Amino acid sequence: MKSLTDDCPKPMLPLAGRPMLAHQLDRLAAVGIERVCIVIGYRGEVIRNYFEAHPPRGIEVEYVVQEKPDGTGSAALLARDFGAGTSFLLTFGDILVDSRVYAELYGLAPGSEIVLALTEVEDPYRGGAVYVEAGRVVKIVEKPPRGTSTTNYLCAGIYLFTDRVFEALESLTPSARGEYDLTDAINSTVREGKTVRAFAVPGFWRDVGRPEDLKPASDYLRDS
After folding, report:
1. Bridge partners, 40 (sequence order)
2. pLDDT at residue number 2
3. Whole-prediction pTM value?
4. Which of these CATH numbers, 3.40.47.10, 3.40.50.970, 3.90.930.12, 3.90.550.10, describes 2-223?
């Protein structure tokens, strides 16, 4: 997003007149989620200040701070106290979907260690390439070289976990990029033979990661 995020964390970029993260919270509240924990880092005070001034209806917000931006796995581990003793939903702050996606993920929770949302793309080189057999995830390859994947499934940035995921997160080692990747915790769960179920996101899905994503995401919100 370059200069658009000089003074603003990406999840707070405006879509249809409100921050992206505010739209996410609306959708979570719409399916009955009452508490969220937001992991903040870069310009985290922008997020705190906004929601102090504009409290989301029907949902309680708490925060944990990721002091060092060293990966999605370490960010998720910061929510250990929040997620203790229950299943919980995790979503990245730049992913926009219809609220029914969250409800349907919860519906797949029984018998699953993890439910992984995915979407179909031409080439999943920009994120996690997900390999699926008989409805179960068998492998995720993080940011594979362009043109090398034999799957069209991309990790959609939304997950349902049991709190046992924190054990896998604690055991992570840094990737070649020096980051602790959530993907590695999922792969270790797969290798243990536990059920990691795949869920294809129905309807609209957008990773609002580039300037050209802002307009179609805003148009969707205005029309939905």
Report:
1. 65
2. 80
3. 0.94
4. 3.90.550.10
